[in-house]
Amino acid sequence: MPMTEQNVISTLRNLGKRITKQKSIVIRNIIANPNSTVKEIYYLSKANQPNINLSTVYRVVKSLEEVGLLGNRNICFCPLC
């Protein structure tokens, strides 16, 4: 089953993670562009949220990897990674 933004956000909330507007935008862009690099996700996110930093995108990606929502080989949501 493909991951949706709501599934990811619900999972993060269940794990006690805070969901910010910037984190939501990054998650949305990862889902919409599953084979993108972190920098590509950053530029896509910056179009919607001009004050977002590259470090924010890296932190979001790292936290998604830590909870098992992202594989570490590429940026794609994978429930079994």
Describe this structure in words.
With 81 residues, this protein is mainly alpha-helical. The chain is 57% helix and 0% strand. The chain has 4 helices and no strands. It has helices spanning 5-14, 21-32, 38-48, 54-66. It is globular, with a radius of gyration of 11 Å. The two termini are 13 Å apart.
Concise account of the structure shown:
With 81 residues, the chain is mainly alpha-helical. The chain is built from four helices and no strands.
User: SSE string, helix = H, strand = E?
Assistant: HHHH
- Kindly state the number of beta strands: 0
Give the uncertain stretches in residue-range form.
none
Q: What is the overall pLDDT average?
A: 86
Cα shape: globular
| SS summary, helix count | 4
- Please tell me how large the radius of gyration is: 11 Å
**Helix content range:** 55-70%
Structural class label: mainly alpha
Task: Characterize the biggest β-sheet.
Answer: none
User: Strand portion, in percent?
Assistant: under 5%
Query: End-to-end distance, in Å?
Result: 13 Å
Please describe the topology of this protein:
Elements: H1 5-14, H2 21-32, H3 38-48, H4 54-66
Task: Summarize this structure as a short list of keywords or feature phrases.
mainly alpha, single chain, 81 residues
